[in-house]
Amino acid sequence: MIYARPTPSQEILLPVKPAFMVATLLAALLMNLLPLSGWWLAARPDFVALILLFWCIEQPRRIGFVAAWLLGLLMDVADASLLGQHALAYSILAYAGIVLHRRVQRFSVTPQVLHVIPLLLLNDAIVLVVRLLAGGDFPGYPYFAGSIVGGVLWPVLAIVLKLPQRPKPDPDHA
Amino acid sequence: MEHQPPPFFKTGPTPLARLLICSVLSLLVLIADARFNLLPVLRQVVSVVLYPLQRIAAAPAGIAQRAGEFFVTHASLRGENARLLHERIERAAALQQLQALQAENAQLRELLATRQRVAVKSQLAEVAYSARDPFSRRIVVDRGSQHGVQSGQPVIDHTGVVGQVTRVYPWAAEVTLITDKDHLVPVLNLRNGLRAVLAGTGDDGTLELRFVPLNADFQNGDRLVTSGIDGVYPRGLPVAEVMNVERNAAFLFARITCKPLGGVNRNAHVLIVSAERQLPAPPPEEEKPVRPKRSRKGG
């Protein structure tokens, strides 16, 4: 029976430790700060957006707009971009994640990608619109490549980030 | 009071309300930063918070680079040493001539009672990373206000002008490259002394001369150096070479594309130049001299 097999979202997981969430967000920030250039930079997903979206979907009550907004501000300063553009984009991303979390959680990991990529593209689009309004030029379509790569990384992330919440096998029931 | 839900259901404002608050806050910050440039202090504070993280993020690349430097072969080191020695001997003659010329120039200027040229001081900075903002061309160097770097200082490398310091943090500084969109450098043609304004296009490796009349004498291969009339760039630094001149009578101005002479986006080290000149006050009712500042048009 294929319906009997619990999808990852129906598994009963242990509550996530807040320290683990903070650690993953810090790690994402570090990944974003890596001094890359050229193609690596173009293909690098916005890890902060990705992890933020993950926690907004998985733990919508543990993470909120304050975290999203502050992370956005950090990214703005780190990227030497306009102050507030990532803050705005991450806030909207967090909202989308929190509003859609029930829907996205119903799907198994692979169809989730189809939700994640549009959300990450939306994140890019907000930044793009802000910069175009501020007098910038469209940087070309490779600008969106990072979000596609981010979507492809989602299944891996979903497995890795849920590992610490997996209940330990009970030796009595082995 | 009776109609209040029990505390178990209290979750604060709805997500939409929170989103609205955050969006309004973001927009306020955006407008304050883009239009009025009001928040340098906030940027400084955040940059100090970020600094340790940035150091940690840069560490792996630094270690890899140092490991790579450690494992060089004896032969390549000897080859490089020989090449450097050769270069030094070649340049020694030019340098001796330069010293003589400088002395002669100073003497002539004294005879003519003109102001002496200011000696240009510079400090070496390492490029920490190129800023990840895909909308602008900037690099971040590892020298900041703690090392005496000031906003507005020109940045050069061994072949030409690279850009200009636009934001200074305590331990880092942002350099806007000359290829950044709307970054302007006043230049003059080394061949005939024609002055023009060189603008970045936002595209690596392409610059364009703006507002040059169709009949102006610019040819392929002309070298452009800074004219120094802006008071920012010292006079005579090589900037670019003319690549293509397109004269179309349908347009008012010639379309002249150039390529930068400095290694604008492929340097590991750059020089931050400080030229302290006192310019005479600009005449009151005339057009302002062009300043190579990033114009913040539209927002």
Describe the protein.
The complex is a heterodimer of chains A (174) and B (299). With 174 residues, chain A is mainly alpha-helical. Chain A is built from seven helices and no strands. The relative contact order of chain A is 0.16. With 299 residues, chain B is α+β, with helices and mostly antiparallel strands. Chain B has helices spanning 15-34, 40-70, 74-112; strands at 121-130, 138-141, 154-156, 161-168, 173-177, 184-189, 195-200, 207-210, 223-226, 238-246, 255-260, 269-274. In chain B, the strands form two sheets. Chain B has a six-stranded antiparallel β-barrel with strand order 1-2-5-4-3-12. In chain B, strands 6-7-8-11-10-9 form a six-stranded antiparallel beta barrel. The longest helix of chain B has 39 residues, at 74-112. The two termini of chain B are 48 Å apart. The chains are: A mainly alpha (174), B alpha+beta (299). Chains A and B meet through helix 1, helix 4, helix 5 and helix 6 of A and helix 1, helix 2 and strand 1 of B.
